[in-house]
Amino acid sequence: MKTKNILIIAAHPDDEVLGCGGTIARLAMDGCNVYTLILGEGVTSRSEERDRNKKKKELSGLKKELKNANKILGVKKTYIYEFPDNRFDTVPMLDIIKVIEKVKNDVMPDILFTHHHGDLNIDHQITFKAVMTAFRPIVGETVQGIYSFEIPSSTEWNMPSPATMFMPNYFVDISKTLELKIKAMKEYRSEIRKYPHPRSLKAIEIIAKRWGVQIGRKSAEAFEVIRLIK
């Protein structure tokens, strides 16, 4: 059987861990080739104006954290781009799509994970739209499954409505890889917050256990099936 290529497309460093870190580790352990594509730089939106020179040290540190975290999870290769943090709406959509298509052609993924369309964060919303455009279901498309993940402190913070709510219908048991997810998240020292913030280590564990309880497992990650071809 052909080894599956898995691609995770996320807007910011740490989104890949928060959204599906346990699943990444499990897939890597199962022998899949797992790749991550991080579109945005992170950090610069925390200042009044985007100034990459002033944030040079922080950006460099975040990139190092990203590489360390992905290594822990067993990611085969990480593609890093630097679209402006929380300013994806200032970039032509086509530019983002072209980057995704470039990585797509390199990886030729069988399975894809990305953001939920109803997230509060504008970068997450645009990432989802760009992904759906880049992976249009046309002849020759390799992707057989597209799944969207939640990001604590973004997905659940939007106004709840049928159009925006995260309603998972696919779950992955991460009972054996939750510790790796937590270990990877610890690398993101600049992104971790104190409990009860959703991006605290304790909250991440609680969320995983909550989804686990819902499916009769110790821990799980939840996803919405966007497209599944068999």
Outline the structure in words:
The protein is an alpha/beta fold and 230 residues long. The chain is 37% helix and 19% strand. It has helices at residues 15-29, 56-73, 93-107, 122-134, 178-186, 201-215, and strands spanning 5-10, 33-40, 77-83, 111-115, 145-149, 170-173, 220-228. A seven-stranded mixed beta sheet has the order 3-2-1-4-5-7-6, sandwiched between helices. Helix 1 links the parallel strand 1 and strand 2. It is globular. It starts with a strand and ends with a strand. The mean pLDDT is 95.
Short characterization:
This protein is an alpha/beta fold and 230 residues long. It has 6 helices and 7 strands; from the N terminus they run βαβαβαβαββααβ.
Supply database-style keywords.
230 residues, alpha/beta, seven-stranded mixed beta sheet
Radius of gyration: 17 Å
Name the beta content range: 15-25%
Oligomer: single chain
Give the mean pLDDT. 95
Q: Strand-and-helix sequence, N→C?
A: EHEHEHEHEEHHE
* Biggest beta sheet summary: 7 strands, mixed
The tally of strands reads 7
Shape: globular
- Helix percent band: 25-40%
Number of helices: 6
Low-pLDDT residue spans: none
- How far apart, in Å, are the first and last alpha carbons? 15 Å
Question: What strand line-up does the widest sheet have?
Answer: 3-2-1-4-5-7-6
Label the structural class.
alpha/beta
